[in-house]
Records
---
Amino acid sequence: MSEEFPFVGTGSGMTDTTATEDNLSMCREYAWDFEKNCFLYNGNGQHIMVEGVEAVKVWVYKALQTERYQYLAYSWQYGIEVKPFIGKVMGVQERYSEIKRIIIECLMVNPYITSVDSVEFTATGDKVVCEVDITTVYGEVNVNV
């Protein structure tokens, strides 16, 4: 596994299994509560681990919430570049087209993602929700950000 991706390591004693013929180890992440926007913990206060498609879903959600180059903890390949759009004068469709491009660029660095199938935007007042459909080595995933 490359050190450039903020994936959870396998130091928890879990057995690694092969995800694909390319010998990718099983994707693991800490479980995430998408409604409350926080980690999930078990009854003992320890992080809950998820694997496979659920782990990729967490990675996608977190990557799309993290501004690229802002945090030293992440490589420069991780995250999304949204800051350049703040205050920039663009038409709505032009802005959505550019944001779609940077979303695809952000997600395709992940070796577990094989394609970004659709990126749809829904505006409600001053809030825009993005629905992303991707294909992973484990199957299809839908993430709303």
---
Amino acid sequence: MKGFVLVLGCLIAIQNAQGWRNFNRGRSKGGNLGLPAGDAVRGSESEKVTTEWFTQYLDHFNPNDGRTWKQRYYVNDQYTSKRRDVAFLMIGGEGEASIEWMTKGAWINYAKKFNAICFQLEHRYYGKSHPTSDLSTKNLQYLTSQQALADLAFFIDEMNKKHELSKNVKWIAFGGSYPGSLAAWARQKYPHLVYGAMSASGPLLAKVNFSGEKL
């Protein structure tokens, strides 16, 4: 699989310039990347994308707290092979997840090349993934990158079972900006679950009162 990661890395590097232009053009105030660039998707492709809901724990770090909530995710399994040994995960960030990304974008081209099953997991507290009834200060204590990373780990483990993926399945995490950080951290924190990560423009170094920098 070293060759697989090397080829994937080369493909990402080749499209980096175009992807960065799309990133800057499509980025909105909320932090989300907008919609992917590219040609219109054929109906047969989009029809095979499913919207599903995952039972997620509210607090992964308190064994006495068994509260759960429903987290939205998308699945596209039309490119996977019978081996089901490659899985791509697009990590949701500070914006609503978009089903458009499930059939368009560079990562879908990679999925077709490497026969990957594709998932996109919406970040807790964004879009339609509401862990709590309101956004009070008390409830927002569960909006942390640590909880989001644990969401990813639990999700991957359960998807392995639900979709009967190979015991040797290689999960590749994708993310840009904040989700880019999550992708890198997921690979570092859960190497037994995440085989590789594509982290685009991830702000990995924390800064106090960070207001952003113009390129």
